[in-house]
Amino acid sequence: MSPRRLVLVRHGESVWNVERRVQGHECRGLTDVGHTQAARTGAALARQLAADEDGDAPVRLVTSDLGRCRDTAAPIAAALGVAAHVDATLRERSFGRWEGMTRAELEADDADRYARWRTGADVIAEVGGESDATLRTRAAAAFARLLGDDDTGGTVVAVTHGGTIWYGLHALLGLDAYRFGQVRNASVSELVVGARGPAGLDPALPQLVRFNETSHLG
C-alpha cells in the first residue's frame, strides 16, 4: 500500500468567531485576518507537499460546502494548482436555535443546558441541532472515506470545521475519552495510512502525525 495522507485544515477566522457567536450552519464570512490565514496556509501546504518525498503523488482538495470553508479553500486551491471540490459531509454540525447566539446570551437565556454542554453533556439535539454521537459518526466516516483503501497513494487536503475535526479524530482513532485540545483557526492536522511506523503498528491503521499545527501562521 502506498501512503495516503489526509490533511485537515480548519477554516480561517470568521466574523462570528471574533464575535463569539455559535456558528453551526450559519455563516458570516471570514475576517481580514481569516483571509490572511487562508493564504498563508495555502503557501505552507504548497511548500510542504513539494518537499515531501512523495512529491509527485496526486493531490486532491475538498472543502465543506459552508462559505467560511469555501473562502478558506480558494487561496489553498490557487497555491496547490488544483480545483476545490465541495463535500457536504465535512460541514460543521447544526446548533439549531443556538446559532447566532453569543456565549453571554446562552448563559442568560439557556444557562442550565449551556452549563451542561460546557461540561461535556450531549445536549445539542435538545435545541434542534446535531448530537455529539451523530457528528462523531459522520465525521469519522468522511475521514475514513477520504483516506481510502486503494493503492494509489497521494494526499487529500480537506478544509473543514473545528467540531468536525475534533469529534472525527476522536472517533476515527478509537479514543473514548476526549483527549485533544482546541482546534484553532487555519490549523493543520494530518492523518496517514500505509506509512512506516513503530514496530508492530499495523500500517493499515490511521496514524495521527500532527494536530493543530499553526506555525505557518507566523
Question: How does this structure look, described?
Answer:
It is globular and about 55 Å long. The protein has helices at about 15-20, 30-50, 65-80, 105-110, 110-120, 130-145, 160-170, and strands at about 5-10, 60-65, 85, 155-160, 190-195, 205-215. The chain has a single domain (about 5-20, about 35-90, about 130-215), classed as Rossmann fold (3-Layer(aba) Sandwich), CATH 3.40.50. It is built from seven helices and six strands.
Q: Strand pairing plus helix content: what structural class?
A: alpha/beta
Name of the level-1 CATH class: Alpha Beta
Output the CATH topology: Rossmann fold
> CATH superfamily, please?
Phosphoglycerate mutase-like
Beta-strand proportion: 15-25%
Global shape: globular
Please tell me the CATH architecture by its name: 3-Layer(aba) Sandwich
What integer value in Å does the Rg equal?
A: 17 Å
Mean pLDDT: 93
Q: How many β strands by DSSP? A: 6
The largest sheet, given as strand count, sense and whether it forms a barrel, is: 6 strands, mixed
Detail the poorly predicted runs: none
Number of helices in the DSSP assignment: 7
Terminal residue distance: 36 Å
Tally of discrete structural domains: 1
The proportion of residues forming helix, as a percent range, comes to 25-40%
